[in-house]
Amino acid sequence: MKRAAVGLVLLAGLAAAAGSALLAWQRGLQDATPPSAAPVSLERGAYLVAVGNCAGCHTARGGARLAGGRPIPTPFGIAFSPNLTPDATGLAGWRADDFWRALHFGQGRDGRLLLPAHPITNTSLVSREDADALHAWLQAQAPVAAPRREHQLRGLYGSQLAIAAWRALYFRPGVYRPDPARDAAWNRGAYLSQGLAHCSACHAGRDALGGDQGAADFRGGLLAGLGWVAPSLHDPAEAGVQRWTPEALQRWLRDGQAEGHSALGPMAEVVLGSTAALDAADRAAMGAYLRALPEQAVARPEPAEPSPRRRERGAGLYREHCAACHGEHGEGRHDDGGAPAYPALAGSRIVTQASAANLLRVIERGGFAPATPGHPRPYGMPPFAGVLAPEDLAALASHLRQSFGHQAGEIDAVEVLRLRAAAH
Ligand code: HEC
Ligand code: HEC
Ligand code: HEC
């Protein structure tokens, strides 16, 4: 008995020692990277804030730009973004070194370890010169008072020890090292996509702890709390762009729309908030990098038992609710001037992706492609969430996945409900 108690005390002591070692290690990550010698340009800072879409997370709906307070869903609950304006409740008094430490090492000014809800794996790759320009621009904005909102994370997930453990597994401060085998455009595209533009924050494949394989992991995965899948950028049947022309891809990055592909849901926000701001050279560079990503097919999950009755019901629903816009055979429709108005569903990747999540989200929520200067007045689609029951959605999705030459797996109402649960 006594010996067991002594053992327990020893064990607890060991765990505490390991815990404080872990914390000390993660908090101790620091270096003496000096501020960049280049003169800081506010114009450059404004451009980088846009490309990094800092406002996408650091602005609450209806709130002042960059004043924080937006809920960010994570696998462990809700994190709230802090205020980045130079107010006492935000970054007042932050020196360039403090800011660099936050982006590069993921540490607050007081050494507090930042949650990976801020894309630390990605912002760690941002160069000191770019970090200094971001800092200078942010410090030059009008201060807005907006106190920090407490994160709502389950259990101990928000504790510094849990964050230190997570970081020990998945985070290493990085520096973008150019690949000498590639040209300057590819390297510039890699630097932007892996770093500031944080594409892997959504497109990485994630394990049960929300960990990924680094900033160049684009294997795709379900976005916690949103119910959308960010599909794999390595698979041309998912979101890969390896087979697009450079021109179509650059148009898509700028306008959110090109040759029948439109950016939808969270990706529409990324285009509007980030890639639309890229200058022509950076857009071409990002395009070159994305087109050269190694191809790898994703695993397709076991489909539901095929059911002719389900598909027949789906065909009826399609004729009733969808064909007027998308065409009897999913061929889409043009407007009177001959410009594409309603996208073709025949050949649409949203319809045939391994996961039916995005197809269901589009049908349930409807939507608009982002309105951008190159595509100013997109046509809209009404939401069908209140109109179609889970059985109907499964039937319709199964019909679409098996028609117009498609051969994707059917889905049933159980899958519809499972994917709907992932949206909350
Ligand atoms: C995906 C959402 C997301 C994006 C994109 C994002 N952030 Fe964050 N950021 C957060 C969250 C959430 C936190 C709070 C983390 C915490 O409290 O542990 C945070 C924390 C920070 C902090 C620490 C502030 C403090 O008070 O400790 C800084 C600085 C910061 N972000 C700057 C930026 C900049 C600059 C960009 C654009 C390059 C950016 N963030 C993009 C979500 C995001
Ligand atoms: C906030 C999460 C998020 C971020 C960040 C994000 N994506 Fe996406 N992306 C998505 C989702 C969700 C989809 C699926 C919806 C769609 O097809 O538009 C998607 C789809 C795509 C597609 C397929 C488009 C099509 O029409 O077939 C491409 C290409 C893409 N993303 C590239 C990128 C690049 C490049 C970046 C970084 C600049 C990026 N994404 C950042 C969520 C994200
Ligand atoms: C009033 C016309 C209209 C109706 C009715 C309609 N849609 Fe749409 N649909 C659109 C428009 C416009 C878009 C493009 C919107 C966007 O890009 O966000 C679209 C986009 C889509 C997409 C994404 C295609 C892609 O590749 O980007 C799918 C899938 C889709 N609709 C399925 C359906 C289904 C299934 C129905 C019937 C339940 C339906 N739609 C009814 C107008 C309509």
From TrEMBL:
Keywords: Heme, Iron, Metal-binding, Signal. Residues 40-142, 184-294, 309-404 form the Cytochrome c domain. SUPFAM superfamilies: Cytochrome c (SSF46626). GO terms for cellular component: membrane. GO terms for molecular function: electron transfer activity; heme binding; iron ion binding; oxidoreductase activity, acting on CH-OH group of donors. Pfam families: Cytochrom_C (PF00034), Cytochrome_CBB3 (PF13442). Heme c 3 binds at C322, C325, H326. Its cofactor is heme c. Residues 1-17 form the signal peptide. Gene3D superfamilies: Cytochrome c-like domain. Heme c 2 binds at C199, C202, H203. Binds 3 heme c groups covalently per subunit. Heme c 1 binds at C54, C57, H58. PROSITE patterns: CYTC. This is Cytochrome c. It comes from Pelomonas aquatica.
